[in-house]
Specification:
This protein is α+β, with helices and mostly antiparallel strands and about 375 residues long. It folds into two domains: about 260 residues; about 45 residues. The chain has 14 helices and 13 strands. Helix 13 crosses helix 14. The structure holds flavin-adenine dinucleotide. Flavin-adenine dinucleotide binds next to helix 5, strand 4, strand 6 and strand 11.
């Protein structure tokens, strides 16, 4: 059997099998890879065996043990949510931010704080585009960060602008992304550490990574349906209320609903195989609470993430409270079940590289979760 390398590997193992997550990492690194309407395609193979494109792909050879070592320098203690220093409820203190945010506005509040106080040179965010696919943006002002509030439930290739930012000399970045994007970004950082990401000045940059929870994203076909249903009225907000499908809120105040049965066929194929639901390799991860829409779930993971949260709290940017113990089993069960489904469907040669020890750790944790829920 021919061993695939370089762009050929990316095309055959990921793109041709519809396993591309649309993270955008390869797009920003290669002049021959394009993203059009959230579909990523290789238009010409450079022929290099050692290209960067396949090495940053979150769907090629993901070894969680290696990733834990790279990000946390130790094996994970939590096999369901990933290594962490604590889980909380959090929300933005500023009313404008919390009102415009998807839930508590924590992501916007943190990114705005870092940009405003020049803790980073720019933030890599995702901006809505009415009824069209959203766009990746590099932002440097608080107003621009606020303009990116809200979830866009599709796979915007946000990471494609990371290289643009680095080439502009923005060497301290805040990166906000879905779990697949966090993995791809960590892979980029790993290559940089090995001096292999040649297109970046000196191969050196710093980043704080804010990861989103994500069980799935929608394929770009969603926007065709959205345009149909909204009849030209601009969408200003999308939401996924628990077990009710998706609701689009329009500029004229009307609401358009996508019931679950209409939404399911629109889920991006690559998301079905995703083993990371809470952005396990981020500095901090943020999701909904599925309990109180004015708050976010916040998982603090790295020392860098912990320092940011303490600073933002002390500066009155976000407030934090204890995660209610009675709802923790719900989150653990939802995450463990998705992971178990992915493992069940896993086939030889698939992207996940899981050792027996790792799998044992996961199944033991899943069992504990099940018994605690009962
Ligand atoms: C595709 C998708 C699926 C999700 N699924 C879940 C889920 O199943 N369960 C759950 O608890 N939470 C999920 N989330 C996360 C949730 O919707 C909120 O983004 C998160 O709780 C942060 O809330 P916030 O109030 O702090 O957001 P805000 O303060 O409004 O900030 C949102 C930030 O997210 C970024 N962003 C928006 N859309 C995207 C995108 N498509 N790709 C990358 N970055 C983006 C923006 O740049 C913005 O900075 C999902 C998010 C996305 C994008």
């Amino acid at each position: 059997m021919k061993i695939l390398t370089g762009p050929e590997k990316l095309k055959k193992e990921v793109m041709d099998r519809n396993l591309c997550t649309g993270c955008g990492a390869c797009v920003g690194l290669c002049p021959y890879i394009y993203a059009v309407n959230e579909r990523v395609a290789l238009v010409h193979s450079c022929g290099l065996k050692e290209g960067n494109c396949h090495q940053v792909c979150p769907r090629i050879e993901l070894n969680p043990v290696e990733m834990d070592k790279q990000v946390f320098n130790k094996p994970r203690a939590d096999h369901i949510l990933g290594e962490n220093k604590g889980i909380f409820f959090a929300r933005a203190v500023d009313q404008q931010i919390s009102e415009n945010g998807q839930y508590g506005g924590v992501v916007t509040a943190l990114a705005a704080y870092m940009v405003k106080n020049k803790k980073v040179d720019a933030a890599v965010l995702t901006r809505a585009n009415g009824n069209d696919v959203p766009e990746p943006v590099l932002v440097q002002t608080m107003e621009e960060v606020l303009g990116c509030s809200g979830s866009k439930y599709s796979a915007c290739p946000t990471l494609k602008i990371v290289s643009e930012g680095l080439k502009k000399g923005f060497l301290r970045l805040c990166v906000v992304g879905r779990p697949c994007q966090v993995i791809a970004f960590r892979k980029m950082q790993r290559l940089c550490g090995q001096n292999k990401l040649k297109c970046f000045p000196d191969n050196k940059f710093e980043a704080i990574v804010i990861g989103l929870f994500c069980f799935w994203s929608l394929s770009p076909d969603f926007y065709i349906k959205l345009k149909d249903k909204t009849a030209g009225n601009k969408t200003v907000r999308l939401d996924i209320p628990p077990n009710r499908g998706l609701v689009a809120v329009l500029e004229n105040g009307a609401k358009v609903e996508f019931p679950l049965e209409e939404l399911r066929p629109l889920i991006r194929e690559a998301c079905v195989d995703c083993f990371d639901i809470t952005s396990e390799y981020a500095d901090v991860s943020v999701g909904s609470t599925e309990y109180d829409p004015e708050w976010n779930t916040l998982i603090v993971r790295t020392e860098k993430g912990e320092a940011l949260i303490k600073e933002a709290q002390a500066a009155g940017v976000i407030e934090i409270k204890q995660y209610p113990s009675e709802i923790l089993p719900n989150l653990l069960t939802a995450v463990a079940n998705k992971k178990a489904r992915v493992l069940h469907g896993l086939q030889q040669g698939d992207y996940l590289r899981l050792s027996d020890d790792y799998l044992q750790g996961f199944y033991a944790a899943q069992k504990t979760t099940e018994s605690e829920k009962c």
